[in-house]
Write a structure and sequence with these properties.
Blueprint lengths: L14 H15 L5 E7 L7 H11 L10 E7 L4 E6 L1 H23 L4 H19 L15 E3 L2
Parallel strand pairs: 1-2, 1-4
Antiparallel strand pairs: 2-3
Length: 153
């Protein structure tokens, strides 16, 4: 879903890289009731990418999951900025140190211009925490949010 359908979708990733990212989200969500979204755009409209991530998070209605366990991976490619935002449920379980560690991991990949690899790795890392705190229950769990990559401007 493109929040801005009148804007051209950017080709930040190859078709294979897009597939790997979406596949990582799907695999992660088979192990947890948590939800992971990836939002990629060219430029961050705010000085602090966490502010932009919050705007995107609420715009995508990620705060409306039943267990408040959604996580957004926000990336502004040309500005080389990123943010991870977890909803109340998961944030209360893992805390600030967890997010800071994950940002360092993704930055190590981005520093080598391995953007897709960094995103796949961070999805896997986040899914582990979600699995521990919000395990999948085949009888009650449903996919509350789409698994596709959302491309902004």
């Amino acid at each position: 879903m493109n929040l801005f359908p009148f804007l051209k979708k950017k080709d930040f990733f190859t078709a294979d890289e897009k597939h790997r990212i979406v596949e990582a989200i799907g695999q992660a969500e088979k192990q947890t009731s948590g939800e992971i979204r990836v939002y990629v755009e060219s430029r961050c409209r705010f000085v602090d990418p966490l502010d932009r991530a919050a705007e995107v998070f609420f715009g995508l209605k990620m705060n409306e999951t039943e267990q408040r366990n959604a996580v957004l991976v926000y990336v502004a490619m040309k500005d080389r900025q990123l943010a991870l935002m977890g909803d109340k449920g998961i944030h209360e379980k893992v805390g600030d140190v967890f997010w800071d560690e994950k940002v360092k991991i993704i930055l190590s990949h981005f520093g080598k211009e391995n953007y897709a690899d960094g995103i796949v790795r961070i999805i896997t890392e986040i899914s582990e925490a979600l699995r521990v705190h919000f395990p999948y229950d085949g009888d009650t769990d449903k996919n509350e949010l789409p698994d596709d990559i959302v491309f902004g401007r």
